[in-house]
Amino acid sequence: MKLISWNINGLRAGVKKGLADFVHKEQADAYCFQEIKMIDRDVSGQLLPIIDVDGYEPYWCLGKRPGYSGVMTLSRVKPISVLCGMNHGSSDEEGRVLTLEFEDYYLINTYFPNSNRELSRLDFKLEFNKKFEQFCKRMSKKKPLVICGDLNVAHTELDIARPKQNEGSAGFTPQERAWYDKFLKQGYIDTFRMFTKDGGHYTWWAAFTHARERNVGWRIDYFVVSDKLKSHIKESSIQPEVMGSDHCPVRLVLK
């Protein structure tokens, strides 16, 4: 089972930059895209170039605000059930969590809020984190979880190119990092760190100052799975060579 997660920074932009070609080339079993920036009335037409590839079915959870947020999952296997949101009003209105139920696990595609440069949304994000943690606790009572997406936090100093200069910045505040620590300790695995222990591996680069060329980035996109699935993890990797967004895809292979 090959799964790919990618913040594509706009479905329209992704289509223009060859997203359908990427889907066709990778032949993954499911693709989880974040920040598709669509609303109900225009998403279907933009999906056509992508879903017309080897029988994928699209599922999405969209925000009310045009050109903002939204997540989408393409799956070859028909899910048992599909859930948009977490039954939490304010964050659900932004289209940040989409859950597909399969026989052996839940696949949760998520796009965490950015706490913003002045930390103006830090409280909102921490509340979202809390609700997400509660949501995962409820869901994991039924089946193990595969969680993927842009969590908008660099966990440790290994996950950011310039930790000292960014102390306290959005995505690297003590509060956000502490929450992620706490979350993992509740029975989850950051799968990338099972295979790669060193730094210098990033999934997002600022779109200015040639940050990507210089590899001055952040690792903020993850595959996190329940401990129960540890023995099934075959590969977890980052694909920095794939262009088309200020993020790059991350990949998980389960046996």
Question: Gyration radius, to the nearest Å?
Answer: 17 Å
> What name is given to the CATH topology?
Deoxyribonuclease I, Chain A
Range of helix content: 25-40%
CATH class: Alpha Beta
Please tell me the CATH architecture by its name.
4-Layer Sandwich
Number of domains: 1
How is the largest sheet built, in terms of strand order?
Answer: 3-4-2-1-14-13
Beta strand %: 25-35%
- Unreliable spans are none
CATH homologous superfamily?
Answer: Endonuclease/exonuclease/phosphatase
Count every helix, treating DSSP H or I runs of 4 or more residues as helices.
7
Q: How many strands appear in the DSSP assignment?
A: 14
* Distance separating the two termini: 6 Å
Integer average pLDDT: 94
Structural class: alpha+beta
Overall spatial form? globular
Largest sheet: 6 strands, mixed
Can you offer a commentary on this structure?
The protein has 255 residues and is of the alpha+beta class. The chain has one domain: 4-Layer Sandwich (Deoxyribonuclease I, Chain A). The chain contains seven helices and 14 strands. It has helices at residues 11-16, 19-26, 40-51, 89-92, 122-140, 174-184, 192-195; strands at residues 2-7, 30-34, 57-61, 71-75, 81-84, 97-101, 106-111, 145-150, 188-190, 204-205, 217-218, 221-226, 233-238, 250-254. The strands form three sheets. Strands 3-4-2-1-14-13 form a six-stranded mixed β-sheet. A six-stranded mixed β-sheet has the order 5-6-7-8-12-9. Strands 10-11 form a two-stranded antiparallel ribbon. It is globular, with a radius of gyration of 17 Å. The model has no long low-confidence stretch (mean pLDDT 94).
